[in-house]
Amino acid sequence: MRLKSVLFLLLIFLTFYLAAMYSYTPLLVLSAAELIFAAVSAVLPHIFKRRISVGFCKSSDFATAGVSSPITVNVRYDGKLPVSRYEITLAAFYDGGSKRTVKRLCGGCENGSSTACFTLRPSHSGAMRVKLKSVRTFDYFALFSSQRRMNEEMYVAVIPSDEPMDVVIAEREIRGNFSDSFYNKFAGDANEIRDIREYRDGDTVRRIHWQLSSKGMATYVKEYEREADRAAVIYVDIFAIAPLTVPERSDYYRVLYSLLTGILRHGVSVCAYYVDPESRLDISFDVKTENDAAGLLISIYRAVGKAGGKAGIPDRAAPEDAIYITPKLEIFRSGERICEILPEDFDFGLDRVLVSL
User: Fold this and answer.
1) pTM for this prediction
2) What integer is the mean pLDDT of 24-40?
3) Structural contact between residues 164 and 261, judged by C-beta atoms closer than 8 angstroms
4) How far is CA 82 from CA 51, 134, 145, 355, in A?
5) According to a count of CB atoms within 10 Å of the terminal CB, is the N or C end of the chain lower?
6) Cα within 13 Å of Cα(267), Cβ side
7) Beta bridge partners of residue 156, listed in sequence order
8) What angle do CA 25, 27, 33 make, to 5 degrees?
9) SS3 94
10) Is the four-CA dihedral 172, 176, 181, 182 of positive or negative sign?
11) pLDDT digits (tens, 9 = 90+) for 45-89
């Protein structure tokens, strides 16, 4: 654009020089017209800039790591002359990260409101912010431009992709030896049927609904009230996550989400909790669906943001009866290491990891 402007100004100077040298009237008229055209072209971008406003359609949104997600920007213009071209500059970055991805979105608009959309493909899980840096308007020949600085941000919670771990939960362990990490709110053997669902890996044969399954469409199992209320306890240490780099945090979130969804596939809910970095109060979160698991991650993202990305005084030692994931991606239960996630596990997929609880 600058090269075009310089060449156009050189053309005006050359025309005026030849017209003055030879006193040729047509060249004088042409040079005057070029000067007027240049003046109008230089003023138009400033007029457009004052009449155009840009903002995000949402203050927050969700995305999935490795999946392209649309981000919509609202463009409002209250001028009479149409804008042939504008350029919106945005920067995307993760909390705690220094690397920024800059994107430019070009378009045109007329009087009224319109939307512009760009695609965001986050590579890591975690809290991402998309910032509107500036909007630049051009004249009709893109010779001159004018820029307005902006400072609006949009919060994007990037959730890991769905790859539930292969979690093995033995029925006898849930009822007996696993009473510390899994608790039942109801006692006794008499349970009412709460729901009937399709068979999942790990379900006991005793729960199969034979009458319904005999129709041949699928295998169904009975879910009882007491079974629906048992829960695994997971403890998350916010100050252990805070000093990690963006890729390390992403791996941690990926392992946590994969473990949560793997447990949920067995019809077992999760009681997760962490200590808030500011109030130092216990924050508990009941996870019964995959949407709840995503909500828990978003809550953890915000808590890690409060910690400021720096290591602090540890919240406390992980309770012996809770499941705990270390920053080195080791999974502990009752103080015993039951699994370690290796780099090759991420390459082949966490759904291939076997965890026995």
Assistant:
1) 0.76
2) 83
3) yes
4) 11, 20, 15, 61
5) N
6) 24
7) 61, 128
8) 105
9) strand
10) positive
11) 999 999 999 999 988 899 999 999 999 999 999 998 999 999 999
